[in-house]
C-alpha cells in the first residue's frame, strides 16, 4: 500500500487486515505504522512476496509550481506509477489499484470540455491511467478509482482541504457558493471499492461517489457539522470568473502555473460534477467526522 499514512490509505490498510489480508505499508514519512519509509516519486518499494499493489500517493491539484506546471505533475503522478507497475509486472503481481481523480471520468464522458488540454493536473491523471496500464501489460489488471471529494477521518488524518473549509465555516466571513456542485464519497467507501477491485482483479475505470451536492448544500452542511449553522448566500458566476482571472494574473506575474488553470476553472466549478444518482445523506456520518472536533 503506497501512500499508507494518508486518509484513504489508512482506511484501505485497516479494511485489508480486517478481511484477513496481509498488508505492507509504504509512506514518505517514517512512523510506527509504516513498514517502509520512502519517497514513491523516486523509489520503488520492495514487492517480493506480494500479490497486489495499491498506489495512493502523488501530487494533488492544489499545487501551484513554477511554470511550466505539467512536468511537476508528471513527475509526481505518472512516472512513479509507471515505474511501480513495471516492477509489479516483473515480480509477477496479479492485481493493482491506482487512486486517481473523477476529472478523468468527466474527461472521458465530455471530451468537448478539453479538460486534459486545459489543466496540467487533469492531463497528468489521464496520462497516469494510460501509463499504469501500459507498464502493467495484459496480465496485470489495473483498476483506476476516480475519486471526488472524500470525507472522513483516520485518527488525526483528515482530507487535505478540510482545514481551510473548517476555518471559513467557523469564521465570521459570509458563506457564499456559486452555481454548480460536486459528487462526494467517504474514505471508508473508497477502501471498500479498493478491496473489491483487488479481490476481483478488476481492470476497470471506477468512478466512486455516494452523494451529489450543490456547493450551497456542501458548505451549509459543513457549517452545520462545525456547530456554526448559517445561511449560505449565492455567489454570482461573474464574481467567480473575475476572481479566477485575478488569480491567473497573479500566478503569471509570480511565474507560477496552477494544476487547474484559473482561466478555465470556472467552466468546471460552475458545472454540476455529479456522478450517478447519489443517495441523499449518504456521507452524513463521514462529514460530521471530518468537521466535528
Automatic annotation (TrEMBL):
Name recorded for this polypeptide:
NAD-dependent epimerase/dehydratase domain-containing protein
What positions does the domain NAD-dependent epimerase/dehydratase occupy? 2-154
**PANTHER family with a match to the protein in the record:** NAD(P)-BINDING DOMAIN-CONTAINING PROTEIN-RELATED, PROTEIN YEEZ
Domain of life per record: Bacteria
Query: From which residue to which does any coiled coil extend?
Result: none
Q: Entry's Pfam families? A: Epimerase (PF01370)
**What InterPro entries has UniProt attached to this entry?**
Epimerase_deHydtase (IPR001509), NAD(P)-bd_dom_sf (IPR036291), NAD(P)-dependent_oxidoreduct (IPR051783)
Amino acid at each position: 500500500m503506497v501512500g499508507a499514512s494518508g486518509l484513504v490509505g489508512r482506511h484501505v490498510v485497516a479494511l485489508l487486515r480486517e478481511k484477513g489480508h496481509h498488508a505492507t505499508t509504504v509512506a514518505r514519512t517514517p512512523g510506527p505504522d509504516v513498514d517502509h519509509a520512502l519517497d514513491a516519486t523516486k523509489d520503488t518499494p520492495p514487492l517480493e512476496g506480494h500479490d497486489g499493489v495499491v498506489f495512493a500517493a502523488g501530487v494533488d491539484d492544489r499545487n501551484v509550481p513554477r511554470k511550466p506546471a505539467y512536468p511537476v505533475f508528471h513527475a509526481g503522478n505518472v512516472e512513479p506509477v509507471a515505474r511501480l507497475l513495471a516492477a509489479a509486472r516483473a515480480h509477477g503481481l496479479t492485481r493493482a489499484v491506482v487512486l486517481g481523480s473523477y476529472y478523468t471520468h468527466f474527461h472521458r464522458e465530455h471530451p468537448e470540455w478539453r479538460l486534459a488540454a486545459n489543466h496540467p493536473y487533469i492531463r497528468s491523471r489521464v496520462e497516469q491511467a494510460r501509463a499504469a496500464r501500459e507498464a502493467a501489460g495484459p496480465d496485470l489488471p489495473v483498476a483506476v478509482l476516480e475519486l471526488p471529494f472524500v470525507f472522513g477521518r483516520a485518527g488525526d488524518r483528515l482530507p487535505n482541504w478540510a482545514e481551510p473549509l473548517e476555518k471559513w465555516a467557523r469564521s465570521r466571513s459570509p458563506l457564499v457558493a456559486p452555481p454548480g456542485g460536486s459528487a462526494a464519497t467517504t474514505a471508508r467507501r473508497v477502501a471498500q471499492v479498493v478491496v473489491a477491485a483487488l479481490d476481483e482483479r478488476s481492470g476497470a475505470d471506477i468512478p466512486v461517489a455516494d452523494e451529489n451536492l450543490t456547493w450551497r448544500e456542501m458548505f451549509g452542511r459543513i457549517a452545520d457539522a462545525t456547530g456554526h449553522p448559517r445561511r449560505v448566500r449565492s455567489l454570482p458566476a461573474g464574481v467567480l470568473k473575475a476572481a479566477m482571472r485575478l488569480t491567473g494574473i497573479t500566478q503569471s506575474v509570480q511565474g507560477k502555473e496552477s494544476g487547474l488553470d484559473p482561466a478555465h476553472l470556472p467552466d468546471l466549478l460552475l458545472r454540476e460534477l455529479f456522478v450517478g444518482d447519489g443517495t441523499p445523506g449518504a456521507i452524513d456520518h463521514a462529514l460530521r467526522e471530518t468537521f466535528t472536533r
